[in-house]
Amino acid sequence: MVAGSDGTLPWVPRRLVRLGRNRDSMKTAAWLQMLLVGLGGFLGSVLRFVMSGLVHRMFPFLGFPVGTLAVNVVGCLAIGFLGGLVEMRQVLAPEQRFSC
Fold first, then answer.
1. How many CB atoms lie within 10 A of CB 29?
2. d(CA 10, CA 63)
3. What are residue 87's phi and psi, to 5 degrees?
4. 3-state DSSP call for residue 90?
5. Is the whole-model pTM more than 0.70?
6. What is the DSSP letter of 7?
7. Where are the alpha helices (DSSP H) in the chain?
8. Residue 26 φ then ψ, to 5°
């Protein structure tokens, strides 16, 4: 993990860092981040399961896993749209962007 110039971690929301600069507040921020990532993963996997099942029920006669294909195509479009939106609006600071 790389700390910023002020000693904070770039993935920790600034409003949580402002609550206190001691070690306990950083632990709380890290746990909150992990909880949010876990919640996002849970919701994403449930939506993937439901969408795949719905598409599979619409085309039960095909031997090809159309539900999986549909979920992957919609996911790619959503990631591309969100990535373009984040880039266009410059939501992330330069040090938070992924670079090769």
1. 20
2. 47
3. -70, -40
4. coil
5. no
6. S
7. 14-17, 23-58, 66-89
8. -70, -40
The pLDDT tens digits for 49-97 are 999 999 999 998 988 999 999 999 999 999 999 989 988 888 877 777 7
State residue 1's pLDDT score: 47
Place of tokens 């006669």: 61
Q: Please state at what angle helix 66-89 crosses helix 23-58, rounded to 10 degrees.
A: 140
**Residue 74 has which token pair?**
């919609």
Any idea where the domains of the chain sit in the sequence? 14-96
Tokens representing 25 are: 């507040």
Question: What does the block give as tokens for 17?
Answer: 């860092």
Residue 44, both tokens: 């994403």
Q: Which two tokens stand for residue 84?
A: 């373009």
